[in-house]
Write a structure and sequence with these properties.
Blueprint: E1 9-10, E2 22-24, E3 28-31, E4 45-47, E5 50-57, E6 60-64, E7 67-71, E8 75-79, E9 83-90, E10 95-101, H1 110-114, H2 117-122, E11 125-127, H3 130-147, H4 155-181, H5 187-202, H6 209-215, H7 220-231, H8 235-253, H9 258-264, H10 270-281, H11 285-290
Parallel strand pairs: 1-4
Antiparallel strand pairs: 2-3, 3-10, 4-9, 5-8, 5-10, 6-7, 6-9, 8-11
């Protein structure tokens, strides 16, 4: 699944294993315990489905909507639709047991995943105790086994209900974690979460603190203070990082010229774009495109 503009986009079927160790359709996939991230995640892409999995070996560095995490054996990962995903590094032995699904496939049980969203947004990567990880892996194995029975007249319904069971097990683990910490998002953290959502929607056209403050019904001074206090970074730094992320993606993954990319990102001139890019990466756009 590709969009004509913006970051390259992928759907559920495109992340399925190519070696036959899984069950894949346009709307659902499940793998055994040896899935590894395809090369298409080596550059940032927007994922239009949802997926969850557990690391079974090795490690990787993953960026989800600009938030970087390290994944190691026993870690649970949950990615929601629309997330910008980038895996710049994975070890040779990195593998996951995972399942992916579209909104279409979840019709009728969508409320279960909706209830997970507040937890997932805060903690998309959740380290698990060994027994909790094994409980979920057993469910993944059962899901894989049942999904392969394509001739079964209730295959879809059985798989959906196993997914529902999986979601409730995952939700219980998140609730256990947050019950221990007894902590919800603070108002400042909620403001920052909303800011990141707005930046992802508007970064190509809007790069001023004033715009985002207005959208959030805050003063620019107050928004700047909240973001600096919460993240130790400025609003402008978050905006610029998003712009650079998209620019890098277009330079590596598209056939657009530097001038076309400058236009696409709404820079007044290619030279202005070039100075901006070099300031934030230490390289010219052309040098970055030619780099390994």
């Amino acid at each position: 699944m590709m969009k004509k503009e913006g970051l390259p986009g992928i759907g559920v079927a495109q992340i399925g294993p190519a070696d036959g160790r899984g069950y894949v359709t346009d709307h659902f996939l499940v793998t055994d315990r040896r899935w590894s991230a395809p090369a298409l995640f080596a550059e940032p892409v927007r994922f239009y489905g949802a997926c969850t999995g557990i690391c079974t070996a090795g490690s990787c560095t993953i960026s989800l909507n600009l938030k970087i995490s390290e994944i190691r054996p026993g870690d649970l990962i949950f990615i929601v639709p629309g997330t910008i995903v980038h895996i710049p590094r994975q070890s040779d032995d990195f593998s996951l047991c995972m399942t992916g699904f579209s909104a279409e496939f979840l019709k009728g049980i969508y409320q279960a995943i909706n209830s997970l969203y507040p937890y997932i947004f805060q903690t998309p990567v959740l380290p698990l105790a060994a027994d909790d990880a094994e409980t979920l892996l057993d469910l993944f194995d059962l899901l894989y086994e049942k999904a392969l029975r394509k001739e079964h007249c209730y295959c879809r319904e059985i798989v959906q209900n196993l997914l529902l069971t999986l979601f409730y097990e995952i939700s219980a683990l998140y609730q256990k974690k947050y019950a221990k910490s007894d902590r919800q998002l603070t108002r400042d953290e909620e403001i920052f979460r909303k800011l990141i959502r707005l930046i992802i929607l508007h970064y190509k056209e809007e790069r001023t603190v004033a715009f985002y403050a207005r959208e959030l019904c805050l003063t620019p001074k107050y928004l700047s203070s909240v973001v600096k206090k919460t993240t130790n970074r400025t609003v402008t730094e978050w905006i610029n990082e998003t712009v650079v992320l998209d620019a890098k993606t277009q330079l590596k993954s598209s056939q657009m010229t530097v001038q076309q990319i400058a236009n696409y990102l709404n820079f007044p001139t290619p030279s202005f774009f070039g100075r901006f890019f070099k300031k934030h990466t230490g390289m010219t756009p052309k040098a970055y495109r030619l780099s390994e």
